[in-house]
Structure formats: C-alpha cells, structure tokens
Known about the structure:
about 150 residues, alpha+beta, 4-stranded antiparallel sheet, 4 strands, elongated
Amino acid sequence: MSKASKIEAQLAGITNTPAAKLREAWLERFGEAAPAASSNLMRLVLGHALQETAMGKLPAAQARFLGGDAPLPEASIQLKPGTRLVREWNGRMHSVLVSEDGFELDGKLYPTLSAVARRITGAHWSGPRFFGLKRRPPPPCKEGRADG
Length: 148
C-alpha cells in the first residue's frame, strides 16, 4: 500500500468515526481534551494533522496565503525576445521590442524596462508595473472589515 493510499484510508476512517472516538483521538494526538466543537470540525483538524504528520507542513508562504495573511509571491514573468510591449502614455502610444540585449524604444536600446519607463515618463517607475506585467497589490483592509 502506497503512502498516499494509507493516508486516504486513514482519512476515510476519520470520516466515519463517531464523536466519542474523535474526542479520544484528539486527546491522543494533541495531549489535551477536545474543545466543544462539532464532529465535522474535529474531523477536519484531525485529518489535517494526519496529513501534516505524513507529508510535512506547508511552506510558510503557502500557509500564510491559505490563512489569508499574505499573498503568494508572483511568479516572475519571462519575456522572450521578439515580444512587443505597448503602452499609451499622455496620449501617445509607445511600443517596446524585447531583444536578447535589452529593450528597444524608438531605435535606442535600454537595459531594463524601468529605464524605458523612466524615458517615457521622466520619472522613476517600475518598468514591469508600468507595462502592466505586475499587478498592483491590493490596498490594506481595515481591521474588522472583510473588504475596503
């Protein structure tokens, strides 16, 4: 029997376990009496603990994401040579060609997208953000409210 199938069998066993047995399993697993919680909630917690013991804990970033504390970091975007980025700024369209040596704008080569954005706007910008390759982080939520 594989490790995954053993875990599946144990999880199936938890699904059918009566409340009294769940409370015994809780005491054995956590060393303290089960809280006043529903059987379904105890099954979820015991099932999570079972999987965590067998397969290890989630990486910290993923655990924070699932807990709603932090977003997962964005995967970096890899631009292939030949890609064309287009952005309108102050009523003018700007077209940037990605090459193996950098980014070409109006016949001039720039080492980074931020340098291109600076050339276009005259101010410091994150190039990937300027060209819409990165999302803007959501505004912080006010405490006690689900959304802004």
